[in-house]
Amino acid sequence: MKPWPLLLATVLVAMPAHGHETAIDGTWKGKSVCQVKRSGCRDEAVVYTARQSGPDSHEIFTYRIEAGRTVRTGRISGYYTDARTFTAWGPDSWIFTIKGDHMSGRIVSPQGRLLRVIEVDRIQ
CA torsion 61→48→59→116, rounded to 10°? Predict the structure, then answer.
């Protein structure tokens, strides 16, 4: 038996899957909890809409829900750093761990200070 079919099967199994289990694309809703007490920062209900923006990159449009209205707060761009982790940079680092239809994240300042903890679920 030739070894290449076994090698090909091994490579395919080892490749990270960016299917539904880890895909960030879609609409996510949940909460963003401020970790900087005694500041202008406050806890927010949030909605994120993510889509692929390039061969290896994605962008997330961020919104907060305020008085029943959806208010756009920004846009971040990033990429997968491994099969379940999505990282984006702006003034701060956004790091998300994706498990099926749930995404946990954190926003960290350039100095390494934890600013926010995010928990969202896919709604679309």
Answer: 100
Beta strands of 39-113 (E only): which ranges? 44-52, 58-66, 69-82, 85-89, 93-99, 102-108
Other C-beta atoms within 10 Å of 71: how many? 12
Give the separation between CA 32 and CA 62, rounded to whole angstroms: 11
- The structure tokens listed for 50 are 């993510």
DSSP 2: -
pLDDT level of residue 22 (50, 70, 90 thresholds): low
**Helix or strand or coil: residue 11?**
helix
Note the pLDDT tens digit of each residue in 73-105: 999 999 999 889 999 988 899 999 999 999 999
d(C-alpha 92, C-alpha 108), whole Å? 6
Question: By the 8 A CB rule, do 102 and 123 touch?
Answer: no
- 113, 64, 53, 119: which is closest to 88 by C-alpha? 53
